[in-house]
Specification:
The protein has about 100 residues and is α+β, with helices and mostly antiparallel strands. Helix content is about 25%, strand content about 25%. It contains two helices and four strands; from the N terminus they run βαβββα. β1, α1 and β2 form a beta-alpha-beta unit. The radius of gyration is 13 Å and the shape is globular.
């Protein structure tokens, strides 16, 4: 049985703006609900490290980047629409 891959997500924010805080809160909640124990969220504050935006071609913030599993996917905004985020990341909702 193959080892399950961890999802690697990177959230680009700009300080503690309302949209940045909301985006982190939302993606953390969705990951706990749908990827519990199988994800890593790296938060990149572009106010502290602006040079890091170039690597993932970040033009707006907040932006969520799914690094793993490939292919790379990006979602821009506060991530408040759970259905759109799950579809954008290609996460299958947990069915009970």
């Amino acid at each position: 049985m193959p080892k399950e891959e961890k999802w690697e997500l990177r959230l680009y924010i700009a300080g503690q703006t309302p949209n940045s805080v909301l985006a982190l809160k939302n993606i953390s909640k969705y990951c706990e609900n749908h990827l519990k124990g199988k994800y890593i969220i790296e938060v990149v504050d572009l106010l502290k490290n602006p040079q890091l935006a170039e690597g993932d071609q970040i033009f707006a913030i907040p932006t969520l980047v799914r690094k793993v599993p490939v292919p790379l996917r990006k979602i821009i905004g506060d991530l408040s629409n759970e259905e759109k985020v799950l579809v954008g990341l290609n996460i299958r909702p947990v069915t009970l």
